[in-house]
Amino acid sequence: MHKSKQQTTLNTFQLSTLVLALMALNPVHAADNDVQSLGVIQVTGTGQAASMNAALREQQSSDSISSVVHADGIGQLPDDNAAEALQRLPGVSVERDQGEGRFVTVRGLSADLNAVTINGTLVPAPESNRRGVALDVLPAELVQSLAVVKTLTPDLDANSLGGTVQVNSLSAFDHKGLFYTGTAEGSYNSLRDKYSPKFSGAISNRFSILGGEDNFGVAAALSYQNRKFGSDNVETEGEWKGQGLNKISMRYYDIARERLGAGLNFDWRTDSGQYYLRTLYSSFNDTESRYARNVKFDSPCVVNQVCTGKVTRALKAREEDQDIQSYVLGGKQQLGMWLVEGQLGYSEAQEHDPQGLSGAEYTGKFKGLSYSDTKRPVFTSSVSDLNNPKNFTLNSIKEKQALTKDTEKNIKLDFTRDYSLAEHAAQFKFGGKVSHRQKTNDENEWVYKKLNNLGTSDFYGDADYGLASFGPFIDEVAAKNHLVGLDPNKNIDLEASTVNDFKSKENINALYFMNTVDIDKLRVIAGLRFEGTKKTSQGYGYIDGKVSPTSHKQDYNNWLPNLTLRYELDKNTLLRAAYTSTVVRPTFAQSSPGMYVSNTDLEAEFGNPDLKALTANNFDLSVEHYFGTAGTLSANVFYKKIKNFVYQTDVSGQGRWADFDTATTYRNGQQAKIYGLELAYSQKMDQLPVPWNGLIWGLNTTLSHSDATISDTYTTRHIRFPSQSNFVGNALLGWEGERAGVKVSANYKSANVYQITDVSQPALDIYNDKQFFVDISTYYNITKQLKVKFDVGNVTNQAYYAYTGSKSMNAQYETYGPTYKLALTFTHF
User: Fold this and answer.
1) Which of 134, 416, 472, 739 is most buried, taking the most CB atoms under 10 A from its CB?
2) CA–CA separation, 378 vs 250, rounded Å?
């Protein structure tokens, strides 16, 4: 698509969204008795409207600016996991992996700068190099509600710059009496022509114990899915030199992603207290075979030029297991004038890569190599057959094993007392939290070379690769057979097996106080939070072939003031304003003391344990109007001033690295600013005559802008904050009847900066291109309890595209195809 057409499409989408939002400034209201008073959560209507209505009432009664989605709302759209459900909310977008939502971005701030809690306790991250939690580990069926809290009060952890994702699991008190539901689903991926099963269920009930009535509840949920899919990919990793390419990789992915999730929760309520135990376990097994046809040109090759180079056919066959466990024991008890709340939390996240092929490479030297498209640069040869195994020789085989473990233990205690301040209702609250976190990473890699085997019998079949002719697969078993009898101890890669290993401990002690006073229709919340951080980290240095241990300690304190105002213009209209201050620590990998140094090659790569924590001053102003069933109109203006954001840079040419060609590490940026406007509108058209009263529609959009300053020895420049998109939008249009319904949802995200490669060379920055996803969901109620659903995900076959500097220069192009789902659900309530 030409640039002018792309811009026209974008402008049309933005204009349409804004026009529809402005039309909603004078909505047709439902009858007054349909509008719920503040603080009351009551479901009216059915289907998506009922779910949206309940979520909006919860959002309305909150002291914070937040967005909420309920469990039945998650099930109304073709979302496989918690991340995809959250992308429907204002200001929220997702980072995708293989076309599936994984990490949640809030207001342009990446998942590493936001926190995730399950039932009030922090969720650690399974990945070694991230703080952000991949929410595709959590099946949607285990979730009762999801909320993104964008303005934090002092009693909440201050460790998010964009927002805190709060995951709440099922409780027996969410339903009256016995409740159970079960779903059987089958899906079909058109790209790989594969079918995938999914089964889920939940049950809850209340019991009378110790003289009470329906005062003890038990809830359980279980979910299993084995999703089989894949993708076709071509990427350059940004290896451009002017208009020429250094290398190209064509990749064929075949993936089986198995999820198992379970939750078991207990609640006990008395006349003066409530107690609970929340447990959640989620297992994520990813079996991936990546077949690649790569070329490394002898010199940079421009489009349509005939070049020479080394072509490699490669296989990466690995298994990745991720587990998350969360256990929360807590409660609240009225003791005289004071309400005492306490919580013990333990959570654990783990990622295990059992020993598997990280690379089996068969190489050959070729002439007549060329490519004809810079956006999808698949390459061919006019001289030799790139698909003939006889033209390739087995060069090397690599194996890798890795284990990352992240645990968090916390204890929290809060005290609250209501009192009268100058004849106004007031509340004083104070408390503290102790959190101990430990993250370890251990990697081992083996490299086997000089295997002296042509390996022509190691190939089979022909890959159905949608972007070009690809050729045969590499047989994993045949490749591994070449290692039989070889001694792993003689082939270990000492560098790769040490430099990424680390052990970090992070202890955070927090104290806070806050006071709330209601003056007529105005609620004022003011408070202060203190967080003291103590961190120790251990790693390894690999310097000129020698390994030595490294360590570092870091202590710092943060004082975080907070002011929140909430004013009721009338019983359905709210004004909110908030000033909040927050702090986020660098990732454990960024601050690792590990390093690689080669004084011979003049190359170095190392973490920076002296990195400062990121801090932000946040200002929010919003107006919200609620009406009818699932009806809301809101606008929110936000501004964030961020200090000490972290970026990757090359510090060669200065200090110790004055004579080095490259010295890659992390630095704190000077400052960044992000500001924007969130608009949201939704309504079920109850006031229209039958059948039009079944119409439901919603729109939300976030317009934002950012400016950040980075520098190295020679250059200072302004950039957009990484991962921040200027425009994010969602649209929903549907019709719901008692027997049947259909919904079309769309999600749009404009381009954003993915990676700053070199501060002094902006042409090497990598950007994620815009994306526009459309999903369709339909249902038919066979009976009041039995429902059949048919969904289509990614109707438009939206691909992922990343580019280097210019939109015409590929960094990565990947396509996934649509997915079709058929499900049958039985619910008793």
Assistant:
1) 134
2) 7
Residue 761 is classified by DSSP as -
Alpha helices for 223-310 (secondary structure H): none
**Percent of the chain that is helix, strand, coil (3-state, to 5):** 10, 60, 30
Q: Which tokens belong to 757?
A: 């490669």
Distance CA 702, CA 728 (A): 5
- Percent with pLDDT over 90 in the chain: 69
The rounded distance, in Å, linking the Cα atoms of 684 and 688 is: 10
CA–CA separation, 607 vs 537, rounded Å? Answer: 11
* Closest by Cα among 580, 698, 721 to 647: 721
pLDDT higher than 80, residue 22:
no
The H or E element that residue 330 is part of is strand 307-335
Tokens of 744: 């079309």
Second CATH level (architecture) for the domain 48-233+252-400+430-541+558-828: Beta Barrel (2.40)
Which tokens go with 267?
Answer: 């609640």
Q: What is the mean pLDDT of residues 130-139?
A: 77
pLDDT digits (tens, 9 = 90+) for 691-702: 999 999 999 999
Where do we find the tokens 């010295």? 663
Q: Which two tokens stand for residue 150?
A: 């964008």
> Above 80 in pLDDT, residue 35?
no
Name the one residue in this structure whose structure tokens are 């061919």: 380
Task: Considering only CA atoms, give the Rg of the chain.
Answer: 28
Residues β-bridged to residue 701: 679, 729
Query: To the nearest 10°, the Cα dihedral for 14, 19, 20, 26?
Result: 150
> Which pLDDT score, from 0 to 100, does residue 76 have?
52
CA distance 667 to 143: 38
Q: How far is CA 394 from CA 127, 214, 288, 391, 479, in A?
A: 32, 69, 22, 10, 9
Placement of tokens 């070009």 in the chain? 468
How far apart CA 123 and CA 819 sit, in angstroms, is 30
d(CA 388, CA 810): 27
| CA 521 vs CA 63, 64, 358, 619, 748: distances in Å | 13, 16, 62, 22, 38
Residues with Cβ within 8 Å of residue 596, at least 6 apart in sequence: 495, 499, 541, 542, 543, 603, 604, 605, 606
- The pLDDT of residue 457 is 87
> Span 7-21, mean pLDDT?
38
Q: Hey, what amino acid is at 743?
A: K
Residues in the chain: 829
DSSP string spanning 27-69? -----GGGSPPTT-----SSHHHHHHHHHHHHHHH-SS-EEEE
Give the start-end residues of each E strand in 628-739: 631-643, 646-650, 662-668, 671-684, 695-711, 716-719, 727-736
- The tally of CA atoms less than 13 A away on the side-chain side of residue 390 is 2
